[in-house]
Amino acid sequence: MREGGTSSLPLFSARAGLSRLFFQASRAWGRVLVWSLMCSVMTAKGYSATAPQINWMTWSKAAFEQAAQEKKPILMDISATWCHWCMVMDEKSYADPEIIRLINENYIPVRVDADRRPDIVNRYSAGGFPTTAFLLPNGDVIASATYIPPAPLREALLRYQDYVSANYHGQKSALRPLEPTKSEVAISTMIISHLDQIISTEFDAEHGGFKNAPKFPTPDVNEYLLHRYLATKEKKYLEIVTANLEGMYHKGLFDPVGKGFFRYSTAADWSNPHYEKLLKDNAQLLSNYLLAYQVTGEELYRKVAEELIGYLLSTLYDQELGLFYQSQAADEDYYRLSEAERVSHEAPPVDKTFFTNYNVKAVRAFYLAGLVLENAEYLQVAERGLTFLRTRMRDPERGMAHYFEQTPQVYGLFDDNLSMMEALLEAYEVSGTATYLLEFEELRQFAERSFYNPKSSRYLDTAQKDGIGYLAINFPFLQENARMACALIKYTHYQTAKSQKNQQVADILGSFVEDYQKYGIQAASYGDALNWFWNYPVRAVIVGPRQDQTTLELARQFQGSRPNLRITIILDPAEDQERIKEERYAVTQEPTIYICFDSACLPPFQQPEMIRPALKNFPESPQP
After folding, report:
1. pTM for the full model?
2. How far is CA 29 from the centre of its chain?
3. pLDDT, tens digit, for every residue of 394-447?
4. Are 480 and 416 in contact (CB under 8 A)?
5. From CA 401, how far away is CA 417, in angstroms rounded?
6. In angstroms, rounded to a whole number, what is the distance separating the alpha carbons of residues 422 and 381?
């Protein structure tokens, strides 16, 4: 693509649109997310969230019905508050008087917030933000692109203004769902070897990260590689993670003054960042650096983790509600100032929307921070956030809401419900509070009713039955299904000491055997799920009062010495008499920990300081 943006829009037929949509559904496009957002050096000072002279409507049936009645195309803009080129398009293209006139007279303009409606993004993204899409009244794509400068946009508006009257006669969308089928191919341990090969091939040994520019952080891949290193002790896994984490931090993706990681770099060596900072990225990277510190003891990783914690708590944290804000906007001029110069300049604005799935990432990161850094205040931050999500964002009939803005908004997204289930398991692991498992089971049942397709053995991304346009079709994403499989495996282990396979988990993982390769390195979460499926975790059962400090310290010492493939269960003699009797644990005056790997067990301990030395010689789970 040449400098200055796209001069023409790619036109998709219904069939081509179908292929493109299923490519988007694979979510394998992370590194090309902003291919046309790098085309200029303009800097935006602020973001006009509504481009007010254009008569924007929200995504709604009313907008599509109006388009059909008036025989006009829909011009859909998918943007984000943190997005630099969305700001530029508002200030340049959507501020042009002729463009405003053409849109208001000949189109039904619809604006979508990318973070608030990920379901729309997954179906209509042109590969980055902003997405500029011309739609038929039935939701089919006429043409789409990302950022479009004024002149090409004027040209496109003239080209497509009569498209509906000439080509649309009330027909339904051309998009049809694929018939779900179950794979006949068995799950093989060779999948892990193949995933390792994919990751190794795409690794940039010179700069860290994967492939060429634009280059994004890959927290899921880093986590998978750290788990592989723990299981195999092969240094090749750790070397990739080290290059990734240190490359991002030292070479330009990290803000050395205000702290926090920027979203991505347009240069392969991380030296030319796009300056937005997102909660989801920084929360996941916090977990990466904490796990890397836990695994290696390298002080640099602890330092970065503490700097990330400082940024999150100082800039993105709402002290009153106990939740984290969504993002801090990009401002190239601001971030190029020295530390002394920044003092007299206003920092870029923060989007103070609270998102469930992003806050769960922060909750889980702070649980890990409390454990690894032995800081009770971080555990309290995690507990506060989880309490808000449990009590304010969940509806008994509709599950988890997606975001909070005075009231909970947008229900019916699988990721929010799955994220909450993951957080509840994390909270149970740390505290042993049985309520968390009960709430997990309630959400599990809701998710199975609302999102699971037994014909394909896959969970779908939304619960919509009659959505508009491409939202009429629900998609199964590999990453979400892999995470759900992990959650179900862990839940099974919390419930019973018996080694047993969950058939639904086997079906879920088996359904992607023929598809995982197209996800590239993004299939790392699938690899983690397979490792949990094949391998029995080290299991610690602590018999003692749940709130007893020795009980909790026994749990923390075990968890701190076993970063992966572990299960922690606290059985309180006052509440769990039946299970204690059934599993034949002794009840003593002091809290006692029983650590077993399948049928191999260590002697019981009552002293927390004995756990780490004893586990050094304990067997690792066998790995493929």
Report:
1. 0.91
2. 14
3. 999 999 999 999 999 999 999 999 999 999 999 999 999 999 999 999 999 999
4. no
5. 8
6. 17
